[in-house]
Write a structure and sequence with these properties.
With about 150 residues, the protein is an all-beta fold. It has a single domain (about 5-145), classed as Immunoglobulin-like (Sandwich), CATH 2.60.40.2970. Helix content is about 0%, strand content about 40%. The chain is built from no helices and 13 strands. Strands 2-13-9-5-6 form a five-stranded mixed β-sheet, with no helix packed on it. Strands 1-3-8 form a three-stranded antiparallel β-sheet, with no helix packed on it. The chain is elongated, with a radius of gyration of 16 Å. The relative contact order is 0.32. The model has no long low-confidence stretch (mean pLDDT about 95).
Amino acid sequence: MELTFSLNTLDIHISGKPVTVDFTLENATPADLWVLKWYTPFEGIKGKIFDVFCDGIEMEYQGRMVKRAEPRKEDYLLLKSGDSKTVTIDLTEVYPIQACKKCRVTFRGKIFDTAESETEVPRPSEKHQPFSIKGNSLIFPVLPESI
């Protein structure tokens, strides 16, 4: 399966301001896919789905952890063959990002379920077929507010 992600952001961020990141998911398969949004930015940040390091120090995830029931149809995103979808998230809502010379952000890169037909979703958790997807990391400075 050829699903990939990409992360994009500004070249420089300012401490105390939002650190927004565009997350893009691209479907390079010949089939339309229904992708479970769980543990991706398409559902917001509802768990430790990113690794964030400021000058080598891991920033602890401070958001909520979500317990899940079985998925609903609304939990899936339709991604047509050859298409991509993008969502923007603010990492400062759940990570204490501080001024640093080098902030590194990596998406953990896991998709928990996909299906090629709308009639296949939702699927019960025991039938999910999770897999890793590849993409880039981000590295940028976070300047102090006074600059």
